[in-house]
Design brief:
Blueprint lengths: L1 H16 L1 H21 L6 H44 L1
Length: 90
């Protein structure tokens, strides 16, 4: 259990340091996965497959940006609290 916590912490630290890279990689994997899935649907035209892949990737990217914003908010609030507490005690 301790290893999974340290692994999760290291992943979280990397994501915090590389937010845009994380979102870009998620977008790229989302569009690739969506194209792969849509290509298995024989009843769709190629243009519809590409449009669906773009829409799926766009939705995934918006979710990733919202997640990155939440992480940023959490990090800023957790970093600022100790300094506020120190200022109040002085």
């Amino acid at each position: 259990m301790a290893e999974s916590t340290s692994t999760a912490a290291s992943i979280r630290k990397w994501v915090v340091e590389h937010k845009l890279r994380s979102v870009g990689c998620l977008w790229l994997s989302g569009i690739a996965g969506s194209i792969a899935y849509n290509w298995s649907q024989p009843a769709m035209k190629t243009s519809v497959k590409i449009i669906h892949a773009r829409l799926h990737a766009q939705a995934l990217t918006l979710a990733a940006l919202a997640g990155a914003a939440a992480v940023e908010y959490y990090d800023r609030s957790s970093v600022e609290k100790p300094t506020d507490e120190l200022a109040r005690s002085a």
